[in-house]
Amino acid sequence: MAVIVAARNEAERIGATLDALGAAFAGARLWVADDASSDETAELALAHGAQVISRGRPHGKGANVTAAAQAMLSEGPSDDHVVLLCDADLGESAARLTPLVDAVTAADCDLAIAAFARRVGGGLGLAVGFAGWAIERRCGVRMRAPISGQRALRAGALRAVLPFADGFGMETGMTIDAVRAGLDVREIELELEHRATERTIGGFTHRGRQLRDIVRAYAARRRPGGRG
Hints:
Layout: E1 2-7, H1 14-24, E2 29-34, H2 41-47, E3 51-53, H3 61-73, E4 82-87, H4 98-105, E5 111-116, H5 126-139, E6 151-154, H6 155-161, H7 170-180, E7 185-190, H8 201-220
Parallel strand pairs: 1-2, 1-4, 2-3, 5-7
Antiparallel strand pairs: 4-6, 5-6
């Protein structure tokens, strides 16, 4: 299998995340989609055994993870090859993602998505709420964790949902595209931890960008087959 980790300025957590993934998924190829981090994220990822995909300047989460996924797929894995997508800030809790991979391996679903058992962060829930509404509006599926970045699927399914929507619209667009492609989507509750976004100016700015990108992903999917 392969693991693709989305990262930007995660030097404090990327090492622990990769070590946890390496221990939980022995033999898996680790890829880091580094969105032009200004800290030591890329160097630490290399030191912890990952292949780093970075394009010199920030392109946003969706575009960068798309580039890493395409690089991984260019190596010719079969459609049954399992791929795990996750965020770099999970730290040691990344080892708890195994149920996602198990669900896909056992053919319980085509796309397994982690729902955090406990809410982490101090936002008002606007981005999450709109993403849930957007997914239900576009494809009729109600999601508990519409913007969770922790997802497992097979390479064949991954090919069907690429390219991802730009920026933080990646997960919203991916879910809509997956359902429209006929994939069985399932959420699995997991005890995970990540770096919380606080109620600060920086935190609200980040969540504003999330909402903007989710709106764009929703708008681009007005019609079946619409992407972007």
